[in-house]
Design brief:
With 356 residues, the chain is α/β, with parallel strands linked by helices. The protein folds into 2 domains: 11-253, Alpha-Beta Barrel (TIM Barrel), CATH 3.20.20.20; 261-354, Sulfite Reductase Hemoprotein, domain 1 (2-Layer Sandwich). It contains 12 helices and 15 strands. Helix 4 links the parallel strand 6 and strand 7 (128-133). Helix 7 (181-192) packs parallel to helix 8 (209-225).
Protein backbone atom coordinates (compact mmCIF):
# COMPACT_ATOMS: atom_id res chain seq x y z
CA UNK A 1 0.00 0.00 0.00
CA UNK A 2 1.38 3.39 -1.02
CA UNK A 3 0.81 6.36 1.28
CA UNK A 4 -0.88 9.27 -0.49
CA UNK A 5 0.83 12.40 0.77
CA UNK A 6 -0.92 15.69 1.35
CA UNK A 7 -0.25 18.13 -1.51
CA UNK A 8 1.89 21.09 -0.48
CA UNK A 9 3.89 23.97 -1.80
CA UNK A 10 7.35 22.80 -2.85
CA UNK A 11 10.75 24.47 -2.60
CA UNK A 12 14.32 23.64 -1.69
CA UNK A 13 16.57 24.06 1.32
CA UNK A 14 19.97 23.98 -0.29
CA UNK A 15 20.00 20.85 -2.44
CA UNK A 16 17.19 19.14 -0.49
CA UNK A 17 13.65 19.32 -1.86
CA UNK A 18 10.88 20.10 0.62
CA UNK A 19 7.22 19.33 0.05
CA UNK A 20 4.95 16.64 -1.36
CA UNK A 21 6.85 16.30 -4.63
CA UNK A 22 9.97 15.26 -2.72
CA UNK A 23 10.80 12.38 -0.36
CA UNK A 24 10.30 13.01 3.34
CA UNK A 25 13.65 14.31 4.62
CA UNK A 26 15.41 13.74 7.93
CA UNK A 27 16.64 16.65 10.01
CA UNK A 28 18.65 16.93 13.20
CA UNK A 29 20.24 19.65 15.31
CA UNK A 30 23.80 19.93 16.54
CA UNK A 31 24.33 19.96 20.29
CA UNK A 32 27.75 21.59 20.03
CA UNK A 33 28.42 25.23 20.83
CA UNK A 34 28.06 26.85 17.40
CA UNK A 35 30.89 29.20 18.32
CA UNK A 36 33.16 26.16 18.48
CA UNK A 37 33.63 25.96 14.74
CA UNK A 38 35.81 22.82 14.41
CA UNK A 39 33.64 20.79 16.80
CA UNK A 40 30.44 21.89 15.07
CA UNK A 41 31.73 21.06 11.59
CA UNK A 42 32.95 17.67 12.81
CA UNK A 43 29.53 16.82 14.25
CA UNK A 44 27.71 17.91 11.09
CA UNK A 45 29.94 15.65 8.99
CA UNK A 46 29.33 12.73 11.35
CA UNK A 47 25.56 13.23 11.23
CA UNK A 48 25.67 13.46 7.44
CA UNK A 49 27.41 10.09 7.29
CA UNK A 50 24.59 8.61 9.40
CA UNK A 51 21.84 9.81 7.09
CA UNK A 52 20.98 13.33 8.22
CA UNK A 53 19.84 15.49 5.28
CA UNK A 54 19.32 18.94 6.87
CA UNK A 55 21.07 20.31 9.95
CA UNK A 56 19.92 23.05 12.34
CA UNK A 57 22.29 25.12 14.45
CA UNK A 58 21.50 27.27 17.49
CA UNK A 59 22.39 30.91 16.93
CA UNK A 60 22.07 32.55 20.36
CA UNK A 61 24.35 35.53 19.82
CA UNK A 62 26.42 37.55 17.35
CA UNK A 63 29.50 35.36 17.76
CA UNK A 64 27.50 32.26 16.81
CA UNK A 65 26.00 34.09 13.84
CA UNK A 66 29.47 35.08 12.64
CA UNK A 67 30.72 31.51 13.08
CA UNK A 68 28.28 30.48 10.35
CA UNK A 69 30.51 32.19 7.81
CA UNK A 70 33.08 29.44 8.32
CA UNK A 71 30.70 26.59 9.10
CA UNK A 72 28.30 26.80 6.15
CA UNK A 73 30.89 26.39 3.34
CA UNK A 74 32.31 23.30 5.05
CA UNK A 75 28.99 21.70 5.86
CA UNK A 76 27.96 18.75 3.67
CA UNK A 77 24.35 19.49 4.67
CA UNK A 78 22.07 22.49 4.18
CA UNK A 79 22.24 24.63 7.32
CA UNK A 80 19.21 26.06 9.14
CA UNK A 81 19.87 28.89 11.59
CA UNK A 82 17.74 28.73 14.75
CA UNK A 83 16.92 32.34 15.66
CA UNK A 84 14.90 33.81 18.50
CA UNK A 85 14.05 37.44 19.32
CA UNK A 86 16.96 39.22 17.55
CA UNK A 87 16.39 40.08 13.90
CA UNK A 88 20.03 41.12 13.51
CA UNK A 89 21.09 37.52 14.11
CA UNK A 90 18.83 36.44 11.26
CA UNK A 91 20.33 39.05 8.93
CA UNK A 92 23.86 37.98 9.84
CA UNK A 93 22.99 34.31 9.35
CA UNK A 94 21.58 35.06 5.90
CA UNK A 95 24.65 37.11 4.99
CA UNK A 96 26.84 34.19 6.08
CA UNK A 97 25.15 31.75 3.74
CA UNK A 98 22.58 29.71 5.67
CA UNK A 99 20.03 27.84 3.59
CA UNK A 100 16.99 28.41 5.84
CA UNK A 101 15.83 30.04 9.06
CA UNK A 102 13.85 28.75 12.00
CA UNK A 103 12.25 31.99 13.14
CA UNK A 104 8.87 33.11 14.41
CA UNK A 105 8.24 36.62 13.04
CA UNK A 106 5.93 37.38 15.95
CA UNK A 107 8.75 37.27 18.51
CA UNK A 108 11.37 39.47 16.86
CA UNK A 109 9.68 42.79 17.44
CA UNK A 110 8.53 45.64 15.20
CA UNK A 111 7.13 44.98 11.73
CA UNK A 112 10.03 46.77 10.07
CA UNK A 113 12.44 44.27 11.62
CA UNK A 114 10.47 41.39 10.16
CA UNK A 115 10.42 43.18 6.80
CA UNK A 116 14.21 43.44 6.82
CA UNK A 117 14.54 39.70 7.43
CA UNK A 118 11.92 38.82 4.82
CA UNK A 119 13.59 41.07 2.24
CA UNK A 120 16.96 39.39 2.80
CA UNK A 121 15.42 35.90 2.78
CA UNK A 122 13.49 36.58 -0.43
CA UNK A 123 16.59 37.84 -2.23
CA UNK A 124 18.34 34.51 -1.57
CA UNK A 125 15.25 32.25 -1.74
CA UNK A 126 15.74 31.24 1.89
CA UNK A 127 12.71 29.48 3.45
CA UNK A 128 11.55 30.31 6.96
CA UNK A 129 10.22 27.67 9.35
CA UNK A 130 7.59 28.87 11.77
CA UNK A 131 7.92 26.72 14.85
CA UNK A 132 5.18 26.58 17.48
CA UNK A 133 5.79 24.61 20.68
CA UNK A 134 3.05 23.87 23.18
CA UNK A 135 5.45 24.82 26.00
CA UNK A 136 6.03 28.35 24.71
CA UNK A 137 2.62 29.50 23.53
CA UNK A 138 1.75 33.18 23.85
CA UNK A 139 0.56 34.13 27.34
CA UNK A 140 -2.80 35.37 26.12
CA UNK A 141 -3.59 32.02 24.52
CA UNK A 142 -2.63 30.11 27.66
CA UNK A 143 -4.65 32.45 29.86
CA UNK A 144 -7.66 32.11 27.59
CA UNK A 145 -7.61 28.31 27.35
CA UNK A 146 -6.00 27.47 30.69
CA UNK A 147 -3.58 25.03 29.07
CA UNK A 148 -1.94 24.35 25.71
CA UNK A 149 -4.47 23.18 23.13
CA UNK A 150 -4.16 22.11 19.51
CA UNK A 151 -6.44 24.96 18.49
CA UNK A 152 -4.24 27.52 20.26
CA UNK A 153 -1.12 26.12 18.63
CA UNK A 154 -2.72 26.43 15.22
CA UNK A 155 -3.90 29.95 16.02
CA UNK A 156 -0.36 30.93 16.98
CA UNK A 157 1.02 29.46 13.76
CA UNK A 158 -1.59 31.21 11.62
CA UNK A 159 -0.72 34.59 13.19
CA UNK A 160 2.90 34.13 12.21
CA UNK A 161 1.96 32.89 8.76
CA UNK A 162 -0.24 35.95 8.27
CA UNK A 163 2.71 38.23 9.01
CA UNK A 164 4.85 36.59 6.32
CA UNK A 165 2.02 36.35 3.80
CA UNK A 166 1.23 40.04 4.28
CA UNK A 167 4.77 40.67 3.04
CA UNK A 168 4.22 38.42 -0.01
CA UNK A 169 6.52 35.76 1.38
CA UNK A 170 5.47 32.15 0.99
CA UNK A 171 8.63 30.05 1.35
CA UNK A 172 7.17 28.81 4.61
CA UNK A 173 7.52 25.56 6.52
CA UNK A 174 5.59 24.92 9.74
CA UNK A 175 6.06 22.84 12.87
CA UNK A 176 3.63 22.37 15.76
CA UNK A 177 5.52 20.37 18.36
CA UNK A 178 4.58 19.14 21.79
CA UNK A 179 5.88 16.59 24.27
CA UNK A 180 2.27 15.35 24.48
CA UNK A 181 1.82 13.00 21.54
CA UNK A 182 -2.02 13.24 21.18
CA UNK A 183 -1.79 17.05 21.31
CA UNK A 184 0.93 17.11 18.67
CA UNK A 185 -1.05 14.80 16.37
CA UNK A 186 -4.22 16.86 16.70
CA UNK A 187 -2.41 20.15 16.05
CA UNK A 188 -0.77 18.89 12.86
CA UNK A 189 -4.06 17.47 11.59
CA UNK A 190 -5.73 20.83 12.10
CA UNK A 191 -3.02 22.91 10.42
CA UNK A 192 -2.75 20.44 7.52
CA UNK A 193 -6.37 21.20 6.61
CA UNK A 194 -5.87 24.97 6.71
CA UNK A 195 -2.66 25.84 4.83
CA UNK A 196 -0.71 24.51 1.81
CA UNK A 197 2.73 24.72 3.36
CA UNK A 198 5.10 21.81 4.06
CA UNK A 199 5.08 20.50 7.62
CA UNK A 200 8.10 19.59 9.74
CA UNK A 201 7.07 16.86 12.20
CA UNK A 202 8.44 16.20 15.64
CA UNK A 203 7.62 15.29 19.23
CA UNK A 204 9.64 17.82 21.22
CA UNK A 205 11.30 17.16 24.59
CA UNK A 206 10.63 13.47 24.07
CA UNK A 207 13.24 12.33 26.59
CA UNK A 208 15.94 9.66 26.52
CA UNK A 209 16.36 7.13 23.74
CA UNK A 210 13.74 4.48 24.49
CA UNK A 211 10.90 6.83 25.48
CA UNK A 212 11.74 9.24 22.66
CA UNK A 213 11.81 6.45 20.10
CA UNK A 214 8.36 5.23 21.16
CA UNK A 215 6.82 8.71 21.31
CA UNK A 216 8.30 9.71 17.97
CA UNK A 217 7.29 6.49 16.26
CA UNK A 218 3.70 6.98 17.44
CA UNK A 219 3.44 10.72 16.82
CA UNK A 220 5.47 11.12 13.64
CA UNK A 221 4.48 7.69 12.33
CA UNK A 222 0.75 8.28 12.76
CA UNK A 223 0.85 11.52 10.81
CA UNK A 224 3.09 10.19 8.05
CA UNK A 225 0.76 7.21 7.65
CA UNK A 226 -2.04 9.72 7.07
CA UNK A 227 0.02 11.49 4.41
CA UNK A 228 0.85 14.45 6.65
CA UNK A 229 4.46 15.57 6.95
CA UNK A 230 7.36 16.52 4.69
CA UNK A 231 10.40 16.61 6.97
CA UNK A 232 10.95 15.00 10.37
CA UNK A 233 13.17 15.33 13.40
CA UNK A 234 13.27 12.77 16.18
CA UNK A 235 14.23 14.62 19.37
CA UNK A 236 16.35 12.60 21.80
CA UNK A 237 18.24 13.86 24.85
CA UNK A 238 21.94 13.30 24.24
CA UNK A 239 23.89 12.39 21.12
CA UNK A 240 21.94 13.51 18.01
CA UNK A 241 23.30 10.48 16.15
CA UNK A 242 20.65 8.45 17.97
CA UNK A 243 17.93 10.54 16.35
CA UNK A 244 18.88 9.48 12.86
CA UNK A 245 18.59 5.77 13.54
CA UNK A 246 15.02 6.15 14.80
CA UNK A 247 14.05 8.55 12.01
CA UNK A 248 15.31 6.15 9.34
CA UNK A 249 13.38 3.27 10.89
CA UNK A 250 10.14 5.29 10.99
CA UNK A 251 10.40 6.16 7.31
CA UNK A 252 11.40 2.64 6.32
CA UNK A 253 8.57 1.04 8.33
CA UNK A 254 6.06 3.13 6.36
CA UNK A 255 7.67 2.47 2.99
CA UNK A 256 8.68 6.13 2.67
CA UNK A 257 12.39 5.38 2.36
CA UNK A 258 14.67 2.52 1.40
CA UNK A 259 17.86 4.28 2.38
CA UNK A 260 20.19 2.31 4.61
CA UNK A 261 20.11 -1.27 5.80
CA UNK A 262 17.10 -2.94 7.41
CA UNK A 263 17.61 -5.66 10.00
CA UNK A 264 14.95 -8.33 10.41
CA UNK A 265 15.36 -10.55 13.46
CA UNK A 266 12.90 -12.75 15.31
CA UNK A 267 11.89 -12.04 18.92
CA UNK A 268 13.33 -15.40 20.11
CA UNK A 269 11.37 -18.16 21.80
CA UNK A 270 11.92 -21.61 23.24
CA UNK A 271 12.71 -22.98 19.77
CA UNK A 272 15.79 -20.76 19.40
CA UNK A 273 18.98 -22.79 19.78
CA UNK A 274 21.63 -20.10 19.13
CA UNK A 275 22.54 -16.86 20.93
CA UNK A 276 20.44 -14.81 18.55
CA UNK A 277 20.42 -11.57 20.55
CA UNK A 278 24.21 -11.37 20.56
CA UNK A 279 24.37 -12.13 16.84
CA UNK A 280 21.72 -9.53 16.00
CA UNK A 281 23.46 -6.82 18.05
CA UNK A 282 26.73 -7.40 16.23
CA UNK A 283 25.04 -7.30 12.84
CA UNK A 284 23.08 -4.18 13.79
CA UNK A 285 26.35 -2.43 14.61
CA UNK A 286 27.70 -3.50 11.22
CA UNK A 287 24.64 -2.12 9.45
CA UNK A 288 24.67 1.24 11.24
CA UNK A 289 27.14 2.74 8.76
CA UNK A 290 25.53 1.35 5.59
CA UNK A 291 23.57 3.90 3.56
CA UNK A 292 22.55 1.81 0.52
CA UNK A 293 19.28 -0.17 0.55
CA UNK A 294 19.87 -3.62 2.02
CA UNK A 295 17.60 -6.11 3.79
CA UNK A 296 19.37 -8.41 6.26
CA UNK A 297 17.72 -11.24 8.20
CA UNK A 298 19.04 -12.78 11.41
CA UNK A 299 16.68 -15.59 12.37
CA UNK A 300 16.88 -18.08 15.20
CA UNK A 301 14.86 -21.18 14.38
CA UNK A 302 13.72 -23.51 11.64
CA UNK A 303 10.03 -22.46 11.68
CA UNK A 304 10.01 -18.89 10.33
CA UNK A 305 13.74 -18.42 9.89
CA UNK A 306 14.37 -19.90 6.44
CA UNK A 307 11.36 -18.14 4.89
CA UNK A 308 12.28 -14.72 6.29
CA UNK A 309 15.94 -15.19 5.41
CA UNK A 310 15.02 -16.09 1.83
CA UNK A 311 13.07 -12.83 1.43
CA UNK A 312 16.06 -10.74 2.51
CA UNK A 313 19.02 -9.75 0.36
CA UNK A 314 21.18 -11.75 2.72
CA UNK A 315 20.53 -13.55 5.96
CA UNK A 316 21.18 -16.37 8.36
CA UNK A 317 18.78 -18.87 9.89
CA UNK A 318 20.10 -20.56 13.01
CA UNK A 319 19.88 -24.14 14.18
CA UNK A 320 21.56 -26.03 17.01
CA UNK A 321 25.11 -24.65 17.09
CA UNK A 322 25.06 -23.72 13.41
CA UNK A 323 23.14 -21.80 10.80
CA UNK A 324 22.37 -21.45 7.10
CA UNK A 325 23.59 -18.49 5.06
CA UNK A 326 21.05 -17.26 2.50
CA UNK A 327 21.96 -14.91 -0.38
CA UNK A 328 19.20 -13.57 -2.63
CA UNK A 329 16.86 -16.33 -1.48
CA UNK A 330 19.20 -19.23 -2.02
CA UNK A 331 21.09 -21.31 0.56
CA UNK A 332 24.78 -20.66 0.08
CA UNK A 333 26.33 -22.71 2.87
CA UNK A 334 26.01 -24.12 6.39
CA UNK A 335 28.15 -22.35 8.99
CA UNK A 336 29.12 -23.10 12.63
CA UNK A 337 27.55 -20.68 15.11
CA UNK A 338 30.86 -19.05 16.06
CA UNK A 339 31.47 -18.13 12.40
CA UNK A 340 28.01 -16.82 11.53
CA UNK A 341 28.75 -13.13 12.18
CA UNK A 342 32.01 -13.12 10.22
CA UNK A 343 30.51 -15.00 7.28
CA UNK A 344 27.43 -12.77 7.17
CA UNK A 345 29.48 -9.56 7.42
CA UNK A 346 31.76 -10.74 4.62
CA UNK A 347 28.75 -11.49 2.43
CA UNK A 348 27.23 -8.08 3.19
CA UNK A 349 30.47 -6.40 2.09
CA UNK A 350 30.49 -8.55 -1.04
CA UNK A 351 26.92 -7.59 -1.98
CA UNK A 352 27.57 -3.89 -1.40
CA UNK A 353 30.76 -3.94 -3.46
CA UNK A 354 28.83 -5.43 -6.38
CA UNK A 355 25.84 -3.13 -5.95
CA UNK A 356 22.67 -4.26 -4.19
Amino acid sequence: MTIQRRKTKNFQIGQVGIGSEWPVSIQSMTNTDTRNIPETIAQIKRLAELGCEIIRLAVPDAEAAEALRQIVPKSPLPVVADIHFDYQLALTAIKNGVHALRLNPGNIGARWKVQEVVKAARERSIPIRIGVNSGSLEKELLQRDGQPTAEAMVESALKNIDILESMNFDLIKISLKSSQVPLMIQAYRLIAAKVPYPLHLGVTEAGLYHAAAVKSAIGIGTLLAEGIGDTIRVSITGDPAQELKVAREILRALGLSRKGAELISCPTCGRCQINLAALAEKIEEKLSTITVPLKVAVMGCAVNGPGEAREADVGIAGGKGEGLLFVKGEIKCKVPEDQLVDVLCKEIDNIISKGV
